[in-house]
Amino acid sequence: MRQSMIDLPSRLLLNLEPWRNAAHWRIAFSGGLDSTVLLHLLASLAKSESLPPLSAVHIHHGLQAAADAWPQHCQAICNALGVPLLIERVTVQPGASLERAARDARYAVFSALTQTNDVLLTGQHRDDQAETLLFRLLRGAGVRGLSAMPAQRPVGQGTLVRPLLDISRAELEAYAQAHQLTWIEDPSNQDRQFSRNYLRHQVMPLLTGRWPQAQASMARSAAHLREAQGLLDELAQIDLAQANTPHDFQWLGLPSLELAPLAALSAARQRNAISHWLEAFTQLPDSDHWSGWTDLCEAASDASPIWRLANGELHRSAGRVWWLSGHWLRTPMIGADWQAPSSTLRLADNGRVMFAGHTPCGSLRIAYRQGGEVMHLADRGHRDLKRLLNERAVPGFVRGRLPLLFRGDELLAVANLPGLDGNGQDGWKLHWQPTGEDLGLS
């Protein structure tokens, strides 16, 4: 039997089947048609079905005078249905896009509220999905963007689920009228200065007037694109596995990839793999601004190219690409006297250093490379530090922040580099943890 021929409560239950064992279902309740129908459906089903505990949350943005009456309306609806309601007031930050700022404020609350094994339920429907596809198409989105809204995604420590994505607004209106439900009509939904409202009121009626199944077809296209994106993600994981090779600097605790396996791929596969990898770290540039990746790959072998992105930088060094952010982008202070060398010394913006084994005698200090340093090695005599770092293929971005141990002007040790990190005969080594976290040292 086609799903559209099944009654609405049964379709909703079918869509929510994977989450029947959740700890809690919380409905994002704006008071509009979609969330009102969702709330009523679930409250009704809870009388005959074994469902997780239900509650609702209403976000009061305070962006228009009419909204001041909405929390009271939502409270009355929830009271009548016996569903607990949490009302959260947020401050929307001013900016270029009021829609985006309101959404960010809303989802910050949702993320904070959604705990492990919780499900947040939102009321977006098939018409919304079609609008999202068209809106993103007009903005030049790629496959991921044109996948529109996923039926589920992580939020906070739990999961956001959209169980009405295969149900049309007309079906929701029919249900609301049949059950004599009342809902809020947001005046801003009529403001056609907002792009989505323009699409909804001006463009969609023209499309559906000519092609009555336009919204259903567009939602189906979004589903096809979502499946295609899933295949691209699987391909990215295969390609990244080839580049996620072991190396001598694991102790840095930095995300990195070997460049050679990536460079052997086609340009499209490179972008796909790197996009997938970087998505966990930063906002990605649009397709017109990927020249930074090309420049990084094609720079001369002795260069140290950098691709600057929204939340950090991608560096190429020692045959790998490295993701740097936070304190890695700040220059550490030049040095510090080590007053109590038996203890750990914390370094500004550069983690901490400590001794393993005995502590060398004398007045000690930690400093960073300035250029021209020379180190005496028992078996090789005096050697330039630059040459020693080159021999060990130390990544360029690490060289200026490797802790160097001095006694007076004598360079005693370079932290963490085997053969340079201490004195085996005297039984001590200098260890560096680049962050404040205990990452372990190899």
TrEMBL record:
<feature type="domain" description="Lysidine-tRNA(Ile) synthetase C-terminal">
    <location>
        <begin position="364"/>
        <end position="432"/>
    </location>
</feature>
<dbReference type="InterPro" id="IPR015262">
    <property type="entry name" value="tRNA_Ile_lys_synt_subst-bd"/>
</dbReference>
<comment type="similarity">
    <text>Belongs to the tRNA(Ile)-lysidine synthase family.</text>
</comment>
<dbReference type="InterPro" id="IPR011063">
    <property type="entry name" value="TilS/TtcA_N"/>
</dbReference>
<dbReference type="InterPro" id="IPR012795">
    <property type="entry name" value="tRNA_Ile_lys_synt_N"/>
</dbReference>
<protein>
    <recommendedName>
        <fullName>tRNA(Ile)-lysidine synthase</fullName>
        <ecNumber>6.3.4.19</ecNumber>
    </recommendedName>
</protein>
<comment type="function">
    <text>Ligates lysine onto the cytidine present at position 34 of the AUA codon-specific tRNA(Ile) that contains the anticodon CAU, in an ATP-dependent manner. Cytidine is converted to lysidine, thus changing the amino acid specificity of the tRNA from methionine to isoleucine.</text>
</comment>
<keyword id="KW-0436">Ligase</keyword>
<keyword id="KW-0819">tRNA processing</keyword>
<dbReference type="InterPro" id="IPR014729">
    <property type="entry name" value="Rossmann-like_a/b/a_fold"/>
</dbReference>
<dbReference type="InterPro" id="IPR012796">
    <property type="entry name" value="Lysidine-tRNA-synth_C"/>
</dbReference>
<keyword id="KW-0963">Cytoplasm</keyword>
<keyword id="KW-0547">Nucleotide-binding</keyword>
<dbReference type="Pfam" id="PF11734">
    <property type="entry name" value="TilS_C"/>
</dbReference>
<keyword id="KW-0067">ATP-binding</keyword>
<dbReference type="GO" id="GO:0032267">
    <property type="term" value="F:tRNA(Ile)-lysidine synthase activity"/>
</dbReference>
<feature type="binding site">
    <location>
        <begin position="30"/>
        <end position="35"/>
    </location>
    <ligand>
        <name>ATP</name>
    </ligand>
</feature>
<dbReference type="Pfam" id="PF09179">
    <property type="entry name" value="TilS"/>
</dbReference>
<dbReference type="Pfam" id="PF01171">
    <property type="entry name" value="ATP_bind_3"/>
</dbReference>
<dbReference type="InterPro" id="IPR012094">
    <property type="entry name" value="tRNA_Ile_lys_synt"/>
</dbReference>
